[in-house]
Model the fold of this input.
Amino acid sequence: MTFGKRQLVIAAMVVALGAAVYLNWQFAGNEPVKVADSSSVSSSVKQLGQTTYVNTELSDGSADKGKTSQKSVSESTSAQPTDSSEVNTSLSKEQQEFFVSEKAKRDKNQEKSIESLSEIIESASSSESAKQEAVKAADLLAKTIKAEGDIEAEIKTKGFEECMVAINNQTCTVIVTKGTLSDATAISVKDIVHRQGNIEFNKITITEI
Done:
């Protein structure tokens, strides 16, 4: 529920900022506008395509501590997605902490990007082109955040106790709990990502943790 409210706040912010910039241009007429440092704009926009690097190392309290457990799932678009509601795996404490921590990092990075874009849009020293780019970038970020949340929610309806989705420059990484993947469930997850995020199948990676 909290994540849903966050999406709405971001979407409302984008609409409000876009309207404010439009009105500003209408009333400003042809008056010259000072150009801000272009590097600040480009760096802010670039942040939108970046996601947190996911550390898939969990401690299991044994000699294998720190070993990464990953499973790459090959692309398969011919088979129909299968409902895997029978999947039910209890999360370990380490798994719970992992998902909470990584999602918090992802959200924090996105919030920083929002703040940077807001500063550009609201600054009187920003050029019109910089503001236009910032509004477009903010809109893209809002759509990305919504897509990540929608994908995570639908994946959980398939029986996965927890998952994390990170969309980055038309690629998507999905992290699920170890032991929940099969060929059928992998196809189902990829279908969800493709449909909700408009991501090509060969650009989707599924990893177990």
About this structure: DSSP finds five helices and three strands in the chain. The chain has one domain: 2-57+70-208. Residues 57 and 66 are 5 Å apart (CA to CA).
